[in-house]
Amino acid sequence: MLPSIFIYIISCSAIAVTSASNILVFMPLPFKSHIRGFQPLFEELTHRGHNVTVVSSYPQNRRIANYTDIGPFIPKGHERNVMDSIDMNFLTSVFSVWDIGFKFSEVLTHKSMEEFLRTNTDSFDLVIIESCCQEYTVALGHKYNAPVINLAPAMIWSSISKWLHVPSTFSYIPNVLLKTTSNMSFIQRLKNTITGILQLYVENYLYLPKMKEIMDTHFTYKGWESRPSLEDMLNNVSLTLVNAHYAIGISRPYLPGVIDIGGMHIKEPKSLSVDLQTFVDSAEQGVIYFSFGSSINLNHLPQEKLNIFLSTIKKLKQKVIIKWTPNSTIELPQHIMTGSWFPQNDILAHPNVKLFITHGGLHSLEETVYFEKPVVAVPFFGDQFLNMKYVEKTGYGKVVDFSKMTEESFGNSIKEVLSNPTFKKNVEIQSRIYRDQPMKPLDRAVYWVEYVIRNGGAKHLKSDSVGLNDVQYFLLDIVFLLLIPIVCLIWSCYLFFVKITYKLY
């Protein structure tokens, strides 16, 4: 019996060793929420026995077995001024995204980054990238002769859909940069179409050539001269994991190589610290949690708007927890707790938390749906507007326009969501839809990552339309051919009637 057990243990160990892979995660740009959202995947892969090397601007502050950090590479002046983004129209928002990609490519000039790109000779079985504003990173798949998995931090937009060959119909799939849902008016569909065309075609001439220039400058290695074009390498990505779910956003068609893993970062709640637990438990009227995430600092907002927030929450009967470090001159009443960081996941899980005041970031919405908390949101930029359109559509929150916000409008939104049980019921419905999954998002993500490794890049997941150009894909040549007899018939009828008319007169 004992020898059999010993042989079984040795066999399992051998399987674990032989199935372990070396994985490179390359996400150097300073998008903190992006790297944090996918961090559970990287750690879980190490728990499965894989060796994970993460190149990012936000290394971990703790040691993790089989996990190697390379970084940080945060460029100077990387923090954005939210006031520069809030009034962008649908055209300037597209160009601003391109500009972010150009500006933040400065991380590639960091000494440690240059050394890694120039001297690293490790062997990797898989490369994981985030293509948003950094399409050039796909070159690492060629360098290491490894399949590439792309991470999408939000709903994929038109340009990504194009090289994934995923249907992205402008009539009902809204662009992530626009402030609309699937139910679009004529003008909204027009804007959606123009934005999509910009991302599909104009960026081929204004954006991707610059990405290629960055790639050719910084991603030089033995054999780089013969690598495929940037477009071909993007078309060859094996799998895309998308931080999305139809309970929180749009229902849209995918191909087998695109997988939704929205909410992967959500963890089972832990106990709160003693002071936080006491504060929340002692709130007879409940607690409101107020956080604008990692990218928006309340101290950087116009004083007028900050005063509106403070004046409103000072009058509330509920206790309020605010992720914010106020200036020493600001006096706050006892029912308000502030701090530079709070365990948002654990706070939202507490039954005495009645409302979440948020900026509408996707991770925050995934948590609020999971833990069944209605919201009042003040979106600032990016996909936050689109996210909150879906919140309004499904009826579990109210949206406040920051540029038009008054103390009255902000306060009334809070009172309405707290007093009307419909908001709570609607978020409970969405939570049931979200939780009703055959497997947890993290397990699904790990499964598909290992699937790509097991199947040598899983080329069979890609669409057969990859080899088609736009004329073939949209059947424009067929349409043209079919139009020829129709045009000829119309022209013949015209000539016939002209001839008849001439004879009559």
UniProtKB/TrEMBL annotation:
This is UDP-glucuronosyltransferase. One of its GO terms (molecular function) is glucuronosyltransferase activity. It comes from Aphis gossypii. It is a single-pass type I membrane protein; Single-pass membrane protein. InterPro entries: UDP-glycosyltransferase, UDP_glucos_trans, UDP_glycos_trans_CS. GO terms for cellular component: endoplasmic reticulum; membrane. It catalyses: glucuronate acceptor + UDP-alpha-D-glucuronate = acceptor beta-D-glucuronoside + UDP + H(+). Its EC number is 2.4.1.17. It is an enzyme of class 2 (transferase). It comes from the Eukaryota. It is found in: Endomembrane system; Endoplasmic reticulum; Membrane. The chain crosses the membrane at residues 6-29, 473-497. Belongs to the UDP-glycosyltransferase family. Keywords: Endoplasmic reticulum, Glycoprotein, Glycosyltransferase, Membrane, Transferase, Transmembrane, Transmembrane helix.
